[in-house]
Amino acid sequence: MKRVDRNSSIELLRIVAMFMILLLHANFASFNAPQDVSLRSFARCLADAFTVTPVNIFVLITGYFGTRFSLNKVFSLVYQVVFCVIPISLVLIWCGRLAPAADG
Predict the structure, then answer these.
(1) d(CA 65, CA 10)
(2) H or E element, residue 65
């Protein structure tokens, strides 16, 4: 597999994308969703619209520069699903917090 040289401009874009993702999380996580129709609510929804795109940009840049296929990573993911997600789901179903999937 060929080595991908890093580009400082792309790294700067990645840093800006990280900052925008922080703004996205802070927008509604700190102030909740807008409840009224006002200029302030419109500005928050507009900021949300502009900060969703950097999530995709960050994922694409990180995936392009940082991934190498490995069977160990695939097995690690399967391990996490089998031994983490399934037991947690079973406990939630048992407690009544999660409804089991309907058949058909």
Answers:
(1) 10
(2) helix 39-66
- The span from the CA of 48 to the CA of 33, in Å, is 11
Q: What global pTM score does this model have? A: 0.54
Residues 6+ apart with CB under 8 A from 4: 64, 65
CA distances from residue 24 to 7, 36, 57, 62, 86 in whole angstroms, order as listed: 26, 20, 14, 19, 30
Q: Examine the domain organization and report whether 61 and 94 are in the same domain.
A: no
Digit-coded pLDDT (tens) for 45-94: 888 888 888 888 888 888 777 777 788 888 888 888 888 888 888 888 88
Is there a single domain that holds both residue 98 and residue 49? no
Same domain for 38 and 4: yes
Q: What's the CA gap between 71 and 79, in Å, rounded?
A: 12
* Identity of residue 65: F
DSSP 8-state assignment for residue 96: T
